[in-house]
Structure formats: C-alpha cells, structure tokens
Design goal:
The chain has about 210 residues and is of the alpha+beta class. It has a single domain, classed as Beta Polymerase, domain 2. Helix content is about 50%, strand content about 20%. It has a five-stranded mixed β-sheet with strand order 1-2-5-4-3. Helix 5 runs antiparallel to helix 6. The N terminus is likely disordered.
C-alpha cells in the first residue's frame, strides 16, 4: 500500500471531500439510469414493447474502493480512486432478448453527451467460464451547482438468461466461501449450464422474431 501524506493515511471514507466525491458518481448513475428509462419508454410507445426487463444500480462503497486500490497497489486517496478505478459507478441493464441488448447499447451511445470509452462483448466472445454480457465503459457529463464534471460509468447489459446464470454462478463461487475451492468438475458443470442458457437465449430470440412477423 502506498501512502503519500497524513491525509491519505486515513481510511478513504474519512478523507476530506469523500462525500462530494461519492455524490458525483451517484449523480452519474442517476443520469444514465434516467436516460435508459426514457429510451425504454420511448421504445415502448413506438413499438408496444419494452426491451428492458429491469435495471440494477450499484455505487461502490468506500470500503470496496479502498480494497480495490490496495489490491492494485495504488495510493489510497480520492485522486487515486478517480484515476485508477473506472467502475465506481455501475448499472446492470437486464433485457428480454439478445437483440434488445444491442438495441439498448446503440440507443444510449448514440446520444451526443455520452462517450463510449471501452466495449467488451462477452456475448459474442464469452469468458472461459461461460460468462456472457456486454460491458460498456462510458464517460458521462454531470452538472453540479458550480461546475461540470465528467464521470466514468460502467454499464453491463445482458439478457434475463445471462443474468440468471451469472447471479447463481457468483453465489456459488463467492458467496458461500467457496472462492478458490470450486472443483474442476463443478467448473465444467457451471460452464455447461452457461451453454444451455445461451442456447435457450437463441431459441427464445428465434421464437420472438417469428412472433413479430
């Protein structure tokens, strides 16, 4: 862990200015969430169908931010958190079908005040364990009383089936004190479940396309 002065030796949540720093990221979450809800409502009015099943918002706690900085070997300070952590503000958008995932991504990133910084498509290129989701790193302007700031926001977009698998896989792997203790047999079974889930997604998309016609 790197310390530079007396202030940064304090826990992150106790450092001067942390409340405002945290508020900036929370405001960015609210802005992106509102944009997505407006787009979903507009899409539903035009098409009598909403592409979004639900939205989950997540703001990293001071403890979580500090733990990540320490794990990265970075100074535990507010400037360091701004520079080194890009997922303090996060949203997960859960869609009904695969097609919806890309429609939501396109509708949001087409807005001229949203800048797409990174795109990791784990749907077309799943992770080795079978995980599927579209991850977008966004840059979002937030207008405060005295200034405009630009805040990074991580957006994960996935289908209901992808979210079902990811949530249960995370529960089994990390929430039951099993991290590092999952057997190879269980890893294979979990990946097989991910493949079944992906096939179900494709079948449901095909059925939905046929119904639309």
């Amino acid at each position: 862990m790197k310390w530079t002065d007396q202030e940064t030796s304090l826990p992150l949540g106790k450092q001067e200015g942390f409340e405002l720093f945290h508020h900036e990221y929370d405001s960015a979450i609210q802005k992106v969430n509102t944009k997505i809800e407006i787009l979903a409502n507009d899409f539903e009015v035009r098409n009598d169908y909403s592409p979004i099943h639900h939205i989950v918002k997540r703001l990293k706690t001071a403890e979580s931010i500090q733990e990540k900085l320490e794990r990265l070997g970075c100074e535990v300070s507010i400037p360091s958190a701004r520079e080194n952590i890009k997922d303090i503000a996060g949203l997960r958008v859960v869609c009904n079908f695969i097609e919806d995932v890309y429609q939501v991504a396109d509708m949001l990133t087409d807005q001229d005040d949203i800048e797409l910084i990174t795109c990791k498509d784990y749907i077309k290129n799943p992770k080795p364990n079978g995980y599927r989701s579209l991850h977008l790193g966004l840059s979002v302007p937030v207008f405060l009383i005295d200034r405009k700031i630009v805040v990074p926001v991580e957006l994960q977009i996935r289908t209901v089936a992808m979210d079902f698998w990811a949530s249960l896989e995370h529960q089994l792997r990390y929430k039951q004190n099993n991290e590092g203790r999952i057997s190879e047999k269980t890893n294979i079974e979990l990946k097989a479940c991910a493949e079944v889930s992906a096939k179900l997604d494709m079948q449901m998309q095909k059925i939905f396309d046929e119904v639309k016609k």
